[in-house]
Design a protein that fits this description.
This protein is α+β, with helices and mostly antiparallel strands and 660 residues long. The protein is built from 29 helices and 13 strands. Helix 4 runs antiparallel to helix 5, helix 21 packs antiparallel against helix 27 and helix 25 packs parallel to helix 26.
Length: 660
C-alpha cells in the first residue's frame, strides 16, 4: 500500500493565487504596476533584469520602503513572487515581472488619474482594461483549458443570475462544453430543490479518472490508516488525512456494529480541521455540545444523516468516500470564492449584492447578443493575453451592431434607446435609482451615525463590515459624507456625479492609486434660500499632529482654483474632519481677506467653513436641512473677523443648540 500512489488533480479553476489574498484588488494591482515601473527605472537603472532570488529580495525591500508591505517576511523572495503572481495570471506582467503592453496601458491610466468611462460598456477605463484581460485569461484544469470569465457570462446569460452558493460550488467545476451544459442543467434542478449541492459536486468529481481509481481501491481493500491516506489524495501530504481513519472507525462502530459511543464519534469528527470538519459535524450531529451528545446519544444524530441507512460496511464505505471528497471539494471551492469574486468584480460588468450575482445593464444586453460567438472561445488560450488589443481582436462577437443591443434593451424595458448618449442617460438614471435604494437599505441614519463614531475611533474593521473592504478608510469616509450631505440636501441633484469617487458596479466605493481634485463637489441650483453655487466638501481623517500641515494648503488651493475657473463668488468649501485643529479653523476663517492668485488671476473673499463629525451627528439626529445650514454658514461668514467664539457660535446654531 505504501508504494501505491493516486495523484491529486485539480477539479476546478481559480483566478489568482490563494497565497496572495487581497482586498482593494484594483488599488493593489495599480500600486504594484507603479512600484514595478519605479523599481525598474530607479533601482535597476538600465542594468540587466533577471527575476532571480536576489532581485526578488531587493523588490521585497523596495515594497517595504514604499509601505506596500509591513512586517518582515521569512522568505522575501517568495513574498515578492506571491505579491505579483496575480498580475502574471491576468497578463499585466510577464513571468519575469516585466510590465506587458496591457499592463502599460493600465499604468498610463493610473498615472493620468483619468478613469472616466469611454467605452461601449460605459465602465471606467481601468475596469475596461480588466474586462478585456479577463475575457482573455485562461486556466488549465487537469489538462483542459477554460476561460472562467466567458464561462460565467455564458451561465449568466442562460440563468439570468447566480446565487453566491451557485457561483461558489458549481461554476468553477466547468472545464469544457459538456460540463457547462451539465452544470447549467444541474443549477436549474438545484433551484427547484430536485438536486443537492453534494450531488452536483460528487457527480463532477466521479467523472475524473483519479477519483474513480481511488474509489475502486477503497471499495476493494481492507480499511486502515494508510488506505485512507492513499485515497484521500491530499494536495499537500498524505499525513494530513490521518484523522479521517479514526472518523471512519467510529462511523463503522456506531452505524454498522451497533455501538452507542456517540461521544467518541463526535470527538473523532472534531479532529477534522477547518471547513471539512464543520461539514462533517453538521452532517452527523444536531449539536456539537459533548454533554448533550453524551446525554441524548442516538437522538443527537440528524434524521437525514446518510449513514443511518447503511446496513453493510460496503454501503458505509460508499457513503464515507463520497463525503470525504465532497467536503474537501466544498472547502476548496469556498476558499476560492473570494479570489474569483474580487477578480470578476474589478471588471465592473458584474453586480455582487444581496448574495446574488448578475450582469450590469449594458453588459447584460451586450453579452446576450454576443455570447453565442464569444462562447466558442471559452475553452482555448488567447495568444494576445499580454497585448492591449481591441475587443474585436478578442472575439468576432464584438463586431456586432450596437443597435441590436439598444433594440433589445428598448424592447425589454419599454423605452427607446437609439444612441450611445441615450444609453448613457438611461444607465445614469438607473444607477441613480439603485443608489437611492442602496441608501435606504444600507445607510439609514443610525448606521451613518455608527459609521461616524467608527471613523472617530478608527474602528476600521467595523467600517469595512458596514460598507466595503474594497476601498481605503479615507475613501469610505468621503463616500459616507457624500451620502450624509445628499440626505441633508433632501436628495436634490445627482450625488453620483457630485462625489468625485470611483464606484463599483454595486455602487460601493473603490480606491485608485491616483489622487483627485476635490472630494465632493455639490452643485445647487438657485432657490429662495440661496443663489446658484457649488459646495466643495473636503474630508480628512488626519489627526491633530499633521492636520495643519496636510490640509491648509490643499483645501484653500482647491477652492481658489475652482473659483477662478467658474467665476462664481458664491462657491465655497466645507472642511469636515473627525478632529479640528484650532489653527486650521483660524487659517480658513482668514481666507476671507487673503487674496488667491493663479495664472495672473486673483480672487478674494474665500469662504471655508469647518465642521467636525460630532457636529454632523447632531445635524443628522435633528434632521437639519441644507437650506437652514446655508443661512447659518453665510451669517457667520459675514461677521467681522474679530467676533469672539465665532466658530463655536456657528456650530451651536447649525446644530440647533444655539441660544441668544
Amino acid at each position: 500500500m505504501a508504494n501505491k500512489s493516486i495523484p491529486y488533480q485539480s477539479f476546478c479553476w481559480v483566478i489568482g493565487t490563494t497565497s496572495f489574498r487581497t482586498a482593494k484588488l484594483n488599488l493593489k494591482i495599480e500600486a504594484q504596476l507603479l512600484l514595478l515601473d519605479e523599481f525598474y527605472k530607479k533601482v535597476i537603472k538600465g542594468s540587466s533584469w533577471n527575476w532571480n532570488k536576489e532581485l526578488q529580495e531587493k523588490y521585497y525591500d523596495f515594497m517595504k520602503e514604499r509601505n506596500f508591505v509591513t512586517g518582515e517576511a521569512k522568505r522575501k523572495d517568495k513574498d515578492a513572487r506571491e505579491k505579483t503572481s496575480g498580475l502574471v495570471n491576468i497578463g499585466l506582467i510577464t513571468e519575469a515581472r516585466l510590465i506587458t503592453e496591457a499592463g502599460k496601458e493600465l499604468l498610463k491610466i493610473t498615472n493620468d488619474g483619468n478613469f472616466e468611462a469611454d467605452n461601449v460598456f460605459n465602465i471606467n477605463k481601468d475596469s475596461f482594461i480588466y474586462l478585456k484581460q479577463l475575457l482573455k485569461t485562461s486556466i488549465e484544469v487537469s489538462g483542459d483549458i477554460v476561460r472562467p470569465f466567458i464561462v460565467v457570462i455564458k451561465c449568466l446569460t442562460e440563468l439570468d443570475y447566480l446565487s453566491y452558493d451557485e457561483f461558489t460550488y458549481f461554476i468553477p467545476l466547468i472545464k469544457d462544453e459538456a460540463s457547462t451544459e451539465q452544470i447549467i442543467s444541474d443549477i436549474r434542478l438545484y433551484r427547484e430543490e430536485r438536486i443537492k449541492t453534494e450531488e452536483i459536486i460528487y457527480k463532477r468529481l466521479m467523472q475524473m479518472g483519479n477519483y474513480q481509481l481511488a474509489q475502486n481501491e477503497f471499495m476493494t481493500s481492507d480499511v486502515d490508516e494508510s488506505l485512507i491516506c492513499l485515497v484521500g489524495m491530499n494536495r499537500k501530504s498524505r499525513s494530513y488525512d490521518k484523522p479521517y481513519y479514526k472518523l471512519y472507525e467510529n462511523l463503522k462502530k456506531v452505524f454498522i456494529d451497533g455501538s452507542n459511543d456517540y461521544e467518541s464519534l463526535l470527538n473523532a469528527a472534531k479532529k477534522i480541521k477547518q471547513k471539512p470538519g464543520i461539514l462533517w459535524r453538521r452532517l452527523l450531529f444536531k449539536t456539537t455540545n459533548i454533554s448533550v451528545v453524551r446525554t441524548n446519544g442516538e437522538k443527537s444524530i440528524h434524521r437525514e444523516c446518510p449513514f443511518i441507512n447503511c446496513t453493510t460496511e460496503l454501503e458505509l464505505k460508499e457513503v464515507f468516500f463520497k463525503y470525504l471528497h465532497v467536503f474537501k471539494a466544498m472547502a476548496t471551492l469556498s476558499d476560492y470564492f473570494d479570489l474569483n469574486r474580487r477578480y470578476f468584480n474589478i471588471t465592473d460588468a458584474l453586480i455582487f449584492e444581496d448574495r446574488i450575482i448578475k450582469l450590469d445593464v449594458i453588459p447584460k444586453y451586450y453579452f446576450r447578443e454576443a455570447i453565442d460567438i464569444l462562447y466558442t472561445k471559452a475553452f482555448n488560450k488567447d495568444d494576445n493575453l499580454r497585448a492591449d488589443v481591441q475587443l474585436e481582436t478578442i472575439s468576432e462577437a464584438f463586431k456586432l451592431d450596437i443597435s441590436k443591443v439598444y433594440e433589445s434593451l428598448s424592447r425589454d424595458l419599454g423605452i427607446k434607446i437609439k444612441s450611445p448618449e441615450q444609453a448613457e442617460t438611461y444607465i445614469s438614471d438607473e444607477r441613480y435609482r439603485r443608489f437611492n435604494i442602496l441608501i435606504d437599505k444600507k445607510f439609514n441614519n443610525s448606521v451613518l451615525i455608527e459609521l461616524l463614531n467608527c471613523f472617530e475611533k478608527r474602528d476600521d474593521k467595523r467600517i469595512e463590515e458596514l460598507v466595503t473592504d474594497e476601498a481605503t478608510i479615507p475613501t469610505i469616509f468621503e463616500y459616507i459624507l457624500g451620502i450624509i450631505w445628499y440626505k441633508i440636501s433632501e436628495r436634490q441633484g445627482n450625488i453620483l456625479d457630485f462625489m468625485k469617487l470611483s464606484l463599483e458596479a454595486n455602487l460601493l466605493p473603490k480606491t485608485h492609486a491616483a489622487g483627485g481634485y476635490a472630494d465632493i463637489i455639490y452643485e445647487y441650483e438657485a432657490c429662495a434660500a440661496y443663489p446658484k453655487h457649488s459646495l466643495l466638501i473636503e474630508a480628512t481623517l488626519t489627526d491633530k499632529n499633521n492636520q495643519r500641515r496636510m490640509e491648509m494648503e490643499p483645501v484653500s488651493r482647491h477652492l481658489g482654483d475652482y473659483r477662478i475657473r467658474f467665476n462664481n463668488p458664491f462657491d465655497y468649501s466645507l472642511f469636515i474632519s473627525t478632529y479640528l485643529d484650532k489653527n486650521v479653523i483660524s487659517d480658513f476663517r482668514y481666507r476671507k481677506i487673503i487674496p488667491y492668485s493663479r495664472d495672473e488671476e486673483t480672487i478674494t473673499g474665500m469662504k471655508i467653513i469647518s465642521m467636525d463629525t460630532d457636529s454632523l451627528k447632531k445635524i443628522i439626529n435633528s434632521k437639519i436641512r441644507y437650506k437652514y445650514l446655508y443661512e447659518v454658514f453665510d451669517k457667520y461668514h459675514e461677521m467681522p473677523l474679530e467676533t469672539m467664539d465665532w466658530h463655536d457660535g456657528m456650530v451651536k446654531e447649525a446644530t440647533k443648540e444655539y441660544k441668544l
